[in-house]
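To: structure desk
From: M.T.
Subject: fold request, one chain
Message: Could you run this one when you get a chance? Sequence is below, nothing fancy, just the single chain.
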Amino acid sequence: MKKSPASAGPDAPGDALDAGFVARIDAARGAGADDAEGRERVRRILLPRIAADSTAHHLTLPAGDAGWKPFGPGVAIKVLHEQGGVMSYLLRLDPGAELPPHRHPIDEECIVLEGEVCVGALRIGAGGYHRGRQDVLHDRLHSLGGALVFLRGAAPRRAHLIG
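Reply: Done. Structure tokens follow.
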């Protein structure tokens, strides 16, 4: 029977658990390897280690001014993530800034983080949510006092804007 890397011992190629860590797990298991308390002790040791090893696979961007680019008069964009034509991004609108009417090639979700935005006559304040439907004309978006919004949808292109 072929041994799995986890059961092959601490010196097996590709074994991610060092001998000291394996000893901690064995001690946590205690005498009753199948009891619920033993399993919980092992979880308390393993899960933080797994989470720590996984942290490098996540994406974290710091807050601040880095990464902002002009998107239009009084409008700046900060791309957070893009994959397969779908983008998560922030838009910062200066007081009085606006985007002309436009369409979205896929549904777009928007959460106002700071300030207030208007979509036509509709006013959306901080914490408010708005979804622009695919291929439906989206009225002029503007902000009287300035705003910061999070959006997820198709990568925005000036070509989608009508005006």
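Reply (cont.): The mean pLDDT is 79. Let me know if you need anything else for the meeting.
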